[in-house]
Write a structure and sequence with these properties.
Layout: H1 11-21, E1 31-35, E2 38-41, H2 42-54, H3 63-83, H4 90-108, H5 111-118, H6 122-146, H7 154-162, E3 171-172, E4 175-183, H8 189-207, H9 212-219, H10 223-226, E5 231-235, H11 242-248, E6 260-262, E7 265-275, E8 278-286, H12 292-311, H13 317-324, E9 350-351, H14 357-363, E10 375-378, E11 384-395, E12 398-399, H15 406-432, E13 435-437, H16 439-442
C-alpha cells in the first residue's frame, strides 16, 4: 500500500473547472511564442491553465502570462542543457509521468472517467506529454546546476536583513516547538485472526474464478484503489511500504501473493505487468478494527511511560520517544514535530495555525517545558491513539529579528541569491536568443523586454 494518501476531488469539481478553461481556448494551433528553434503553442498554455483551475484555484487570466513566461524560461534552460550534456533517464520521466497520472486519476474519480474527459486513453495521453515532461525535468536539472555553487554565509544573512526597511519587516505568527510520544492500539494475534481469515477467504474465491475487480470494489478498505477494482497502476519500489514492495517485485505477471500484513492491515496482491523498476499491481486490503481492549492496553503503556518521565524521572523525553513512540516520522527526531511547510530545513518551529488543532488546543494552556498526561487523539483517518505532548518552547507573534528568526532570514537570503543568479542568467541568455512573442502576450508585465526587437531581428543570433 502507498505510503501516502491523496485527497480525492469529486468528478464534478474536475469537470466544472476544466469546463471553465475550455470555452476560452481559441486558435489552439496558434504559436504563442518562438524561442530559438522551439515553439510554444497556445494549446500548451491553455492546458496548463486548465490544470491550474482543476487544482481549485480561482479563474485568473493573468496566470496565463505566468505560464507563458515559464514555458519560455523552460525552453532556454532545456537548450542550454543540451550544450552542457545534461539529461534525464527514461525511468526519471516514467516515474514523474506515473506520479502525475495517479493524481489525475484520483481527482477524476477513476481511470475511465479521466479517459472520458481527455478523449483518449491514459496510455495515449502519457505518450503525448512525455516530450514535455522530459524537457521540464531537464530544465529543472539545468537550473539546479546554475545555482549549485550558491552559499549563504552569516554575513550574507546579516546584510540581507539590514537592507529590509524596518516598516517592511515580515511578522511571524506565534510558533511552538512540540514533541509527542504516540501509543497506537495494537491487536493481539487472536484479535487479528478474523480479519486475516477474511482476506484469505477473498483470495481463495478469486483463485476459484471470481472476479478480482468486483471483490475489490465490494470489500477492499483502501478507499483510493477500491473504486478501481484494487488497481494501483504503475509505481516504483519506493512508492510502497517494504512488505508490500517485497511481494510486488518478487512475483511474475499474473501471480498472486499470499495474505500478508503491513501497518495498514492485511493484503494480498496480483502483479499485472512489470516494466524494469516499475510494477503494475492490484490489491485488496482488509483493515482490522480497533477494540476497546487494545485502546486500554495503549493507555496503560502510555501511563507507565508518563510515570517514567514525570513522576520517577527515570528517562528524558527524547529517549522515551525513541524507545516507545509508534510515530515513525517523529520517534527518531526525539519525538519533535517538524514544520511540514519547511521540511528541507528540518525546523522544529511550527506556527500554531499549522498544528493539529488538538495539539494546538493543548499547548495553548501548557507551560514551557511541561509534559502532558496521556490524551486520546483521533487522526484525520479516524484512527485513535494516545499521545503524551511536550512543549519545548513558544514564541509570540512578532516582527522578524535576526537573533530570533535567523533560520527563516537565511532561507529568504538564499532564495534571494538564487533568484538574482537566475535573473542574471536569463538576462544574458535572452539577449543571445531569438524570441518572438504573440501580441496576445506582449502586454504581459512578465514579458516586458523578452521579445527580440523587430529592428534587431536580422542581427539576433538564433542560439539555444
Amino acid at each position: 500500500m502507498r505510503k501516502i494518501g491523496f485527497a480525492l476531488l469529486s468528478l464534478t469539481l474536475w469537470l466544472s473547472a476544466a469546463a471553465q478553461a475550455q470555452p476560452k481556448v481559441h486558435n489552439l494551433d496558434k504559436i504563442a511564442a518562438v524561442v530559438g528553434g522551439s515553439i510554444i503553442l497556445q494549446s500548451d498554455i491553455e492546458l496548463k491553465y486548465g490544470t491550474y483551475l482543476v487544482q481549485g484555484n480561482p479563474p485568473d487570466p493573468s496566470v496565463k502570462c505566468q505560464i507563458a513566461q515559464s514555458f519560455i524560461t523552460q525552453k532556454l534552460l532545456a537548450a542550454q542543457a543540451v550544450i552542457d550534456s545534461i539529461s534525464v533517464t527514461d525511468d526519471d520521466v516514467d516515474n514523474d509521468i506515473d506520479r502525475r497520472m495517479r493524481g489525475m486519476i484520483q481527482r477524476a474519480g477513476g481511470q475511465d472517467r479521466l479517459e472520458t474527459f481527455l478523449g483518449r486513453s491514459v496510455i495515449q495521453y502519457k505518450d503525448e506529454i512525455r516530450p514535455d515532461i522530459r524537457e521540464e525535468l531537464v530544465a529543472q536539472k539545468m537550473q539546479q546546476k546554475i545555482t549549485a555553487d550558491i552559499n549563504t554565509t552569516p554575513e550574507d544573512v546579516k546584510q540581507f536583513f539590514n537592507k529590509i526597511p524596518k516598516d517592511s519587516l515580515p511578522t511571524f505568527n506565534k510558533e511552538v516547538e512540540v514533541g509527542e510520544i504516540q501509543f497506537d492500539p495494537h491487536l493481539t494475534e487472536p484479535e487479528k485472526a478474523a480479519y486475516k481469515q477474511k482476506a484469505q477467504d477473498l483470495l481463495d474465491r478469486i483463485k476459484k474464478g471470481e472476479d478480482f475487480g468486483a471483490l475489490a470494489r465490494l470489500y477492499s478498505q483502501d478507499p483510493v484503489s477500491a473504486i478501481q477494482g484494487g488497481d494501483l497502476g504503475f509505481a516504483d519500489r519506493t512508492t510502497y511500504v517494504k512488505e508490500f514492495a517485497a511481494w510486488a517485485f518478487r512475483l511474475k505477471a499474473g501471480e498472486y501473493s499470499p495474505v500478508f500484513e503491513t501497518d495498514f492491515g492485511f493484503h494480498f496482491l496480483q502483479v499485472i505487468e512489470r516494466r524494469g523498476e516499475q510494477v503494475h499491481v492490484r490489491h485488496i486490503l482488509i483493515v482490522p478494527a480497533t477494540t476497546q481492549a487494545s485502546l486500554d492496553r495503549a493507555k496503560a503503556k502510555a501511563d507507565s511511560v508518563y510515570d517514567f518521565l514525570v513522576k520517577n524521572k527515570k528517562i528524558d523525553f527524547s529517549t522515551a520517544a525513541n524507545y516507545y513512540s509508534d510515530n515513525k516520522e517523529t520517534k527518531y527526531n526525539g519525538g519533535m514535530l517538524l514544520n511540514a511547510d519547511n521540511v528541507e530545513t528540518r525546523t522544529t518551529f511550527i506556527p500554531t495555525d499549522k498544528l493539529d488543532p488538538q495539539v494546538a488546543l493543548m499547548t495553548d494552556t501548557m507551560k514551557i517545558g511541561s509534559i502532558s498526561k496521556p490524551v486520546l487523539f483521533t487522526g484525520s483517518d479516524g484512527k485513535k491513539s494516545y499521545k503524551i505532548i511536550y512543549l519545548k518552547s513558544s514564541t509570540n507573534a512578532h516582527k522578524a529579528s535576526l537573533e530570533q528568526d535567523y533560520p527563516k532570514i537565511k532561507e529568504y537570503a538564499t532564495n534571494d541569491k538564487i533568484n538574482r543568479k537566475l535573473s542574471e542568467w536569463f538576462e544574458k541568455k535572452r539577449k543571445q536568443t531569438f524570441i518572438k512573442i504573440d501580441p496576445e502576450y506582449q502586454g504581459c508585465v512578465q514579458m516586458k523586454g523578452w521579445a527580440t526587437p523587430v529592428d534587431n531581428t536580422a542581427n539576433a543570433e538564433v542560439k539555444p
